[in-house]
Design brief:
By secondary structure, this protein is mainly alpha-helical. The chain folds into two domains: 48 residues; 116 residues, no CATH class. The radius of gyration is 20 Å and the shape is globular. The two termini are 14 Å apart. The model has no long low-confidence stretch (mean pLDDT 88).
Length: 177
């Protein structure tokens, strides 16, 4: 297993937080924090395992050429629309959606399609819309927000594709290859 710079940064932040917790609250505070962290880990682990399984399955089962054709740089608005629709219907939190995004990235999807997917998932996820927003905010507000947000993933995807072309961003360097 390779340790990246972000692993080191998060490790340093965790160590500094632990030391601060010990300094401010002593051993009891550190034990309580570790207990809360363990509880959160137990809560999140099944979701994370399912998301990683989905990501791994997509990586193995989906044809790289097909993903590149449907969601790559040459896919145009059709690719962005497909990514937007997929983001809208993907249920769950980041533990399920981001492993899928990573697998699609490795399989040949471009930054524009992936950003359209994430934006649609975050802004207009139908699961959250139906389960949470509609009952709490009512139909008028929910429909208005849905219609207003609908073009935003497409716009974000177009901007991402443009930025990749005009800046020195190296987004095709896929980790692990």
């Amino acid at each position: 297993m390779k340790v990246s710079k972000s692993d080191c940064v998060f490790g340093a932040i965790a160590a500094a937080s632990g030391l601060l917790c010990f300094w401010l609250g002593g051993v009891g505070a550190v034990r309580a924090a570790l207990g809360h962290a363990g509880g959160l880990l137990i809560l999140v682990l099944p979701q994370l395992a399912a998301g990683l399984l989905i990501g791994g399955l997509v990586q193995e089962l989906v044809d790289r050429e097909k993903v590149s054709r449907l969601l790559g740089t040459q896919s145009g608005l059709v690719g962005l629309s497909l990514a937007t629709a997929a983001g809208m219907v993907t249920p769950g939190g980041p533990f399920t959606s981001f492993p899928l995004v990573y697998a699609l990235w490795i399989a040949g999807a471009d930054a524009g399609a992936l950003i359209a997917y994430v934006a649609a998932w975050a802004l207009i996820g139908l699961n959250r819309l139906i389960v949470w927003e509609l009952p709490f905010m009512g139909a008028d507000f929910t429909v208005l927000r849905f219609v207003v947000c609908l073009p935003l993933p497409l716009i974000a995807g177009l901007i991402a594709r443009w930025l990749v072309q005009v800046t020195p961003l190296k987004l095709r360097e896929v980790p692990g290859e």
